């Protein structure tokens, strides 16, 4: 059974999808803890599913390195096989990435390497593209630059607003994340080989 620690910063919609998948006895992964860098709305999902939580507020530390060290301590104490960033909006210091790599994955609301960064959906709309996508990647020290594990194209409609398109992207993002974790747990996706979509 693959043990997951999921990190969130907001509402945790991808987290909810993972918790629902993991509630099926046949799904070979379980969320053992949920962490955040702030008091996140997504902790409501943790409470609903009876999952322990931890918070490591960025503002409580003098620098990113000491914050990252405490985050790593919290993650490590749960014995996670895989760390899932689910709307987690902080970049880890390189030594934390090195300690967890390649067993740390993230979702992104664009067809990477297109539109990396915090505003993938907004940037796609601003660029006037006819399609964007969703991706799951291995976290590295760049911004959404790690090896791509899964990705899928999503059409952009002329009437799309940022929120409408983002909602459609999130549906695919959740499905890709649940499937990617399943593939890792089943051994059909080897993170050490950094399989590209």
UniProtKB/TrEMBL annotation:
Catalyzes the transfer of a formyl group from 10-formyltetrahydrofolate to 5-phospho-ribosyl-glycinamide (GAR), producing 5-phospho-ribosyl-N-formylglycinamide (FGAR) and tetrahydrofolate. Its EC number is 2.1.2.2. Signal peptide: none annotated. The keyword Transferase applies. It comes from Frondihabitans cladoniiphilus. Belongs to the GART family. InterPro entries: Formyl_transf_N, Formyl_transf_N_sf, GART. N(1)-(5-phospho-beta-D-ribosyl)glycinamide binds at residues 12-14. The record marks 144 as: Raises pKa of active site His. Keywords: Purine biosynthesis, Transferase. This is Phosphoribosylglycinamide formyltransferase. It catalyses: N(1)-(5-phospho-beta-D-ribosyl)glycinamide + (6R)-10-formyltetrahydrofolate = N(2)-formyl-N(1)-(5-phospho-beta-D-ribosyl)glycinamide + (6S)-5,6,7,8-tetrahydrofolate + H(+). (6R)-10-formyltetrahydrofolate binds at residues 64, 106. Pathway: Purine metabolism; IMP biosynthesis via de novo pathway; N(2)-formyl-N(1)-(5-phospho-D-ribosyl)glycinamide from N(1)-(5-phospho-D-ribosyl)glycinamide (10-formyl THF route): step 1/1. It holds the Pfam family Formyl_trans_N. It comes from the Bacteria. Gene3D superfamilies: Formyl transferase, N-terminal domain. Residues 3-181 form the Formyl transferase N-terminal domain. The active site is at residue 108.
